[in-house]
User: Fold these one by one.
Assistant:
Number 1:
Amino acid sequence: MKKNWGKKIWGFPGGFIPAESSGKEPEMLSKDEISILNTSQKDADILITIYYADRDPVSGYKITVKAERVRQFRINDLIDPHAIPLGVQYGAVLQSSAPVIVQWSKQITSEGKLGLMGAMAYPVDVDL
Amino acid sequence: MKKNWGKKIWGFPGGFIPAESSGKEPEMLSKDEISILNTSQKDADILITIYYADRDPVSGYKITVKAERVRQFRINDLIDPHAIPLGVQYGAVLQSSAPVIVQWSKQITSEGKLGLMGAMAYPVDVDL
Amino acid sequence: MKKNWGKKIWGFPGGFIPAESSGKEPEMLSKDEISILNTSQKDADILITIYYADRDPVSGYKITVKAERVRQFRINDLIDPHAIPLGVQYGAVLQSSAPVIVQWSKQITSEGKLGLMGAMAYPVDVDL
Amino acid sequence: MKKNWGKKIWGFPGGFIPAESSGKEPEMLSKDEISILNTSQKDADILITIYYADRDPVSGYKITVKAERVRQFRINDLIDPHAIPLGVQYGAVLQSSAPVIVQWSKQITSEGKLGLMGAMAYPVDVDL
């Protein structure tokens, strides 16, 4: 991380990746997804920390969103330092070196159905 | 409650738990769910008050979200001082002894379908 | 209206009530719904104005949310001064005499399906 | 653009228009939609910029939301300077000459299903 954009974080408390999917992949995969928009002129280095219900948080997930670019990725794509298990409650926190706009979305396709939800994250000032 | 985090509350006006579910349980249960992320170094004591359309609010529901942990629970899991009835309009308000991030989600699985919605709560300064 | 709570309004731009529903009523009706939570000790008098794409706004819809109560109602229940037509784009703005928390939700049940979405409204300072 | 409303923007990071739809059109089309409510007494000139994952942003999309009117449109309706491709990740940023309230919604109807999500955008102060 070059530096933090102040002390702001974007947090998502409701993480849960269903183990079951149905329908054509990759569009119809059950997934938790994070979308980050970087409208600034400099790259945004993002640090992600994953919180669990009954074990210590895991930090160190790093991705970059280049200047004037959008990036959308599945939570399952975060595998370093280690993959987030399916079927487990988790929360995610993002920190960024540049101002970004962050959205979370969830798609459930279990049992041949389709459920979709999305939420804009708002940055909050929280001590980490 | 040790103390309030200022006078902030997180409120959810749109509570309603359908009596009917379909599909495999527990994943496909119709439910209202609250997710709380505590990124701080101290436990967060949460006090929940349930508001109804035509009767007095019921307070005294207490849960703890440990330091650096996430907690997700169904509204139906709140049974002390008494369970929230199915099929009744309600609203919920959370107060916390430590800064937390709060999300609400709703899943309806009636009639073999799947509807999903979620919303990030933002803390507001309201007198209680 | 007794008085405005400052100059704050809650606005919903994405109103549209599908004419078609399927499934058991009233739970499975296609609907736009507003949920209001009044945690204060005094009644909240709510004034609603409906905006359209191609005609003048219609104001004068009034409802009361009693002290320490929640109220959830379908947009279609607003019939005075006149009902909101189905299948027409609209937006809604709420003003309140007391601080409240407001949520919007939409349920589409056309063609035997179920789509659900919800959003917390945040109060904004806009001149009316 | 007459002028910017301060330096505020409304941003949507999670854009993606599925190529596949099912069900009766136009109601059941897969779509990303933006809804804008202009409660002010003057027209709002909106400038939209589309950001991509791997190419430069495209700006210059202009629409007007008349005074005291709502406007809802599909992202696909933006064709000048050029149409937004289906099946591609994108983000959108809105700037406005007058204060407005902005919502994003997404409808997926692939494979005979229905998924719906919506999010209120909040204005942020970001350098462009």
Number 2:
Amino acid sequence: MLDSQNTSSRNTPLATHIGADDLPFVEIGGGNKLKVIHVRAAEGLWIVENIFQAGYEVATHRHTGPVFGYTVAGAWKYKEYDYVNRAGSYLHEPAGSVHTLHCVEDDTRVWFQMYGANLNLTVDGRIESVTDGAAALDAYLALCQAQGFGRPNVLVG
Amino acid sequence: MLDSQNTSSRNTPLATHIGADDLPFVEIGGGNKLKVIHVRAAEGLWIVENIFQAGYEVATHRHTGPVFGYTVAGAWKYKEYDYVNRAGSYLHEPAGSVHTLHCVEDDTRVWFQMYGANLNLTVDGRIESVTDGAAALDAYLALCQAQGFGRPNVLVG
Amino acid sequence: MLDSQNTSSRNTPLATHIGADDLPFVEIGGGNKLKVIHVRAAEGLWIVENIFQAGYEVATHRHTGPVFGYTVAGAWKYKEYDYVNRAGSYLHEPAGSVHTLHCVEDDTRVWFQMYGANLNLTVDGRIESVTDGAAALDAYLALCQAQGFGRPNVLVG
Amino acid sequence: MLDSQNTSSRNTPLATHIGADDLPFVEIGGGNKLKVIHVRAAEGLWIVENIFQAGYEVATHRHTGPVFGYTVAGAWKYKEYDYVNRAGSYLHEPAGSVHTLHCVEDDTRVWFQMYGANLNLTVDGRIESVTDGAAALDAYLALCQAQGFGRPNVLVG
């Protein structure tokens, strides 16, 4: 009694499309850029797109949930690994993994679908700060405002 | 007593990198191609990359879990919506959403990170078949074998 | 710049408590009862509590996402397995698993945390109907209305 | 070609049952007890059952993923909220939520299905330590060994 074979319900939920130009990339220093696309805070989900320039580094961090990385252009690596992430590559970072991002080529482009938080570590492995979807969204909205983009329509929920 | 501030454990799990050429694209007819990259069957997770040619269609289907689509090249749409998915766009398909894929431009490239199953529907909305990560993996491995690619190292688990 | 060590933010999200009597159990026939507690439809999440009577059966179904079962009282089993689920036991049903619920003792009580849909199968393994969180919620709300419970405050989202 | 309507595949994955006595409760001090039931580390999932005695406290912590709490017996609360969790209640703690557990009645019993990590906080809101599924499993196995239970068969993966 709890089921329905007919799937063409009037209540069918809708997909949400966010075009390449629907949300701005904000400058985060040195020509590196960030776009926060989708945050479902209760679930711990956050999806961002980055453009990195050669030499850019992200502090060593440990993830508390799984991360799925899709590289579209350029080249970047984690210092802890030999391989280089290039266009068309996929990266799976399990919960608990630790790494230090280093960008190898200009205009590297990557989507990260992340769950949980980044625990940003000092060189001796202590937690210096925490980044999660809610914090990333706040920072993005503030940078959008400061850089003249107004309030973009990030998918929330 | 259950915690540890020191995060540089010898047990740190490793990220898994799958380069663009590490897994083959198999032909699925008409120049359309499929690569199955990652399947975590117990969780219902499956990640694929597709190359579609203009005119390619995927039967109307309903998703039982959320889907996250990242378009890298070309143009495609769902017949149920006006927008066209192009390079750099993001698509969120909530669990329960229903749509019919139609490819608009040749060499369209999309990553889909999917949870759950596709319920493939007849024109009157009844379920004709089901596709999930385990089935996609089986099909991919069979096609790899048939097309001379041997047994590729799909990330499983 | 995207992080914050200070975690006592004014934006801290709140936990939601649903007391044992905050939502009614509805009768679903033969003294068997259902409570729908939490539905996050976009993610495919649905959490229910059931009270089953001896002899109650649920049609054979396949799950498209993982299910986590917590048995509080009584005894029930899946016909496909020998073990009996009793108070204090845990059951993990991976995506793709198939089974036929049979209740062994009166007043069996189980929480199910489910992702995705139940594909209800005929004896020859074809899909007869589909139950998901949205459908369960609709049915529950209708039964609440019909049984004089008004509109209960199920956690949605 | 990627689908199958016939669901009675020989490859159907199996459910895993863990009976109430299949895993030991270990003593964690003062008559409080812990059972680690299921850890899927890559996904950040950990499921535990606790028995708490009146007066037991868990340090203030922030969750980086969602938590689902099922209370079977007794009474406990978070100091930050007025409500008391009693038998038959459900608690949803979204990612980012912060709280300090205090047990009100002896032999309180709760299942927690958790994703991500607990960031354990000092009184001024700084992170003192981190607990996640992998750490909880290590601690549980060590306590089992020390308390004469050998190596229990926790569901891993």
